[in-house]
Design goal:
The structure holds two protein chains of two kinds.
Chain A: E1 2-3, E2 6-9, H1 15-26, E3 31-34, H2 37-41, E4 45-48, H3 53-62, H4 66-74, E5 79-82, H5 84-89, E6 90-93, E7 108-113, E8 124-130, E9 134-141, E10 146-150, E11 155-160, E12 163-169, E13 172-175, H6 186-194, E14 198-199
Parallel strand pairs in A: 2-3, 2-4, 4-5, 5-13, 6-7
Antiparallel strand pairs in A: 1-14, 7-10, 8-9, 11-12, 12-13
Chain B: E1 8-9, H1 12-20, E2 26-30, H2 33-42, E3 46-49, H3 54-60, H4 69-76, E4 83-88, H5 92-101, E5 105-109, E6 130-134, H6 137-146, E7 150-153, H7 163-180, H8 184-194, H9 198-207, E8 213-215, H10 223-231, E9 237-239, H11 241-244, H12 249-261, H13 266-273
Parallel strand pairs in B: 2-3, 2-9, 3-4, 4-5, 5-6, 6-7, 7-8
Helix pairs in contact in B: 2-12, 7-9, 8-9, 10-12, 12-13
Classes of the chains: A alpha/beta, B alpha/beta.
């Protein structure tokens, strides 16, 4: 196996968990934190962690990463975005009843509502059937957003009941759950293989 | 027969996972919906809904209790970031009230007046995750064994003096390092002395850290205080009185958020630390009577001789 370099957006959130899973797949030398435009220029794919989307959105601006990230996304940078990360990518947010909504990058053609499965006590674990990967993929939904609708170019790779929970639009992958806290590296491996970052 | 996937809630993974999403961030004490908005706007990853900030609890004296549920709910209705609230040590009923309100995490806190002299809340019996304070590794492990999904240092709340938080961070780090050199007998002795399962001690030895995230709390008043704690290895920051006792709360809050994230960038720290006006006044710890130290509050069931 050979591998390109995987970046983990390291502003806020469960950065160590994504870093650990990625390192277990591609080796620690091929995983780097992304905190500056210079860091971003040096990676072949990016993992957007879970965290607080309002905080993450503000920090993207403070780190001057919003424009470089948009620019690289337009040129096909593979991104796997989990939970708050998905919110950052979304084309449209259904306004939250309380509080402020973050400014998204607007690149993944989905409409999302934040924290739509309830508060923390309603967070849940389940197993998913993921198209192209298999059954029994463990998934932790933590104050998860709900994907309300997807555009015509978006493939739904997994659902919970009727809701899309794992979607792919070309090089952009969006997940409403956290594969990085379950100890199962299959989804990260699937993304990195399909994106051509991990080569046989 | 259709094979429906099972849905489970309230697991350790979900509780600890929730806390992991807060990493790198700042959790701020607020006492009104307006303060909660200021905190959210400043980039807080969560807010702690309180009746009074610790400095005012100190000044007011008397028995400090869980916040009014109406107040907690009004704060939950105002912001989209997670809302936490404090219950008294061992006060299972207050914890149940907060869980039923739907707060995202309960802080079983020494800042409030302890309710049970012998026991902490059995946190495993709850769906809502808990955060607890600790001064040292043994105390942290006792709370984790009881089900805490997140730890924080106790520091000395309401003083605006970071020295006790630093003491507790260093204490836990040093004790964790000491485990590395212990043999099997010593690990067993340590576990027995601290009244925790040896498996938990072994887990900490393997991980070289606590199995849950650990934040700094208790006395953090400036951006540089937050950066110092982060340099010492904590995963994030709680700020209590430091924000809304400062002259310019919004600006101070933003600066502490920046400092927590960019703690290793002194130029940025210099920039965000400038022009904030007066921070909270602060208290020298040695001027406090022993009975006024909140950090000493831990409920322990002592074996009868």
């Amino acid at each position: 196996m050979t591998s390109g370099t995987v970046g983990v957006l390291a502003l806020q959130g469960d950065v160590p968990e994504h870093t650990e899973v990625a390192a277990s797949i591609v080796g620690p030398d091929h995983v780097r934190p992304v905190r500056t435009p210079k860091d971003l220029a040096a990676v072949d794919a990016v993992l957007l962690p879970g965290g607080e989307s309002t905080t993450l959105s503000r920090l993207l601006d403070h780190a001057a990463l919003r424009e470089p990230l948009l620019e690289r996304t337009r040129h096909g940078l593979p991104i796997m975005a989990t939970c708050a990360g998905l919110i950052l990518l979304a084309r449209e947010l259904e306004p939250s009843p309380h509080g402020r909504d973050p400014q998204t990058l607007g690149v993944l053609d989905v409409k999302v509502r934040r924290n739509d499965y309830g508060r923390q006590v309603d967070s849940f674990e389940t197993k998913l059937e993921v198209e192209g990967l298999g059954k029994d993929v463990p998934a932790a939904f933590i104050r998860a957003p709900r994907i309300l609708s997807v555009g015509p170019g978006v493939r739904v790779l997994a659902r919970v009941r009727e809701d899309p929970v794992l979607v792919r639009e070309g090089h952009l992958w969006g997940l409403t759950f956290h594969p990085e806290v379950t100890g199962d590296p299959r989804l990260h491996r699937y993304f990195l293989t399909e994106s051509g970052v991990l080569r046989p | 027969m259709v094979d429906l996937p099972a849905f489970v809630t309230g697991t350790d993974r979900l509780k600890r996972g929730f806390a992991r999403m807060q990493q790198g961030g700042v959790i701020m004490d607020v006492t009104t919906p307006e303060q909660a908005e200021i905190a959210e706007e400043a980039g807080a990853v969560a807010v702690m809904a309180l009746e009074r900030v610790p400095a005012d609890i100190r000044a007011a004296g008397g028995v400090a209790r869980m916040a009014d549920p109406v107040k907690v709910r009004s704060i939950m209705d105002r912001v989209s970031v997670p809302v936490m609230a404090k219950c008294r040590i061992g006060h299972t009923a207050e914890a149940r009230v907060l869980e039923s309100l739907g707060v995202d995490m309960v802080d079983e806190s020494e800042v409030l007046t302890p309710a049970d002299p012998f026991h902490h809340v059995d946190k495993r019996a709850f769906s809502v995750p808990f955060v607890c304070g600790a001064r040292n590794l043994g105390e942290a492990l006792r709370r984790i064994h009881e089900g805490a999904a997140m730890m924080r240092t106790k520091g000395e709340a309401g003083t605006g003096n970071v020295v006790e938080a630093v003491r507790h961070i260093r204490q836990i780090t040093d004790e964790t390092a000491t485990l590395q050199s212990m043999n099997t007998d010593q690990l067993l002795q340590y576990a027995e002395k601290e009244r925790v399962p040896v498996e938990l001690v072994r887990e900490v030895r393997t991980l070289k850290r606590l199995p849950v995230v650990n934040f700094a709390a208790g006395g953090i008043a400036t951006p540089a205080d937050a950066a110092l704690c982060r340099m010492l290895g904590v995963d994030g920051i709680f700020v209590g009185s430091g924000i809304f006792k400062a002259q310019d709360p919004g600006k101070t809050a933003r600066a502490i958020v920046e400092a927590s994230l960019h703690y290793d960038d002194p130029e940025l720290l210099a920039r965000v630390s400038g022009g904030l006006g007066e921070p909270m006044k602060g208290v020298e710890i040695s001027t406090l009577a022993p009975a006024a130290l909140l950090q000493a509050r831990e409920s322990v069931l002592r074996p009868t001789p």
